[in-house]
Amino acid sequence: MMTREKTKQADLWxxxxxxxxxxxxxxxxxxxxxxxxxxxxxxxVMLATIIAIAVAITWRFSGEHVVRVYGSRALMRxxxxxxxxxxxxxxxxxxxxxxxxxxxxxxxxxxxxTLLPTLPTLAMIVVMACYLVEEQDEYLRHRASLSAIIGxxxxxxxxxxxxxxxxxGLVPHIWAWWVLPVWAIGLGIGQALVSRRERVAEAxxxxxKPS
Amino acid sequence: xxxxxKVLRAERDWSQADLADRLEVxxxxxxxxxKGRYDPSLPLAFRIAxxxxxxxxxxxxxx
Lengths: 211, 63
Prior knowledge:
heterodimer; A: mainly alpha; 7 helices; B: 5 helices; 2 strands; globular
């Protein structure tokens, strides 16, 4: 039988997810400000600081009670990996933008520059795939798959609709990399819908012990 | 599919978390199965039956 720590009732703020999310949310505009107003060196120093804070947060918020909040160890790993991939994306995007603004190199080097934001983005997709493979809890895996399908549905609906509108010149062109943010939004909507259903069920679940 | 998880837990004075620990799944899983929002796989249904020391059909039945 699996024993779990029960002395502390942890909530979401005891997990690295929201802290890393805040770090990315606050850090990105600060990084942009540092890059635009102070210079590349300041941006690099700030980026290193943000990465150090991210590592510290990940190390600080770990343990059995955190697993309990997330529901599974695989879900904890997924959240941490996804946030780290997001940080890598911000870093890659900033560096690529910097190089682009200074004058984009030609040939293979140009392709290498575009890989800087691309690879972390692909890493996010790999992180999701790893989660589905690693998750041992079949209900949580089912829940994640359902959310991913809702995200895919949103991409297909918006992509198809926008594509035809664009074909007939009614809307401007948008870049194809938008599929991932749109999918992520759909994933979030799916997770919110599933969580809402769970909260409704929780309302029926009177406390911990059955009466 | 209907199930008797809540009654069986009550008989043993187990919380959803207690049952989740015994099954080595999340409490969300137990909640979803108990409320009939998710039908467990056959291997998990067998584990649930083992934990309660009952046959699967003593726990789960058709709607």
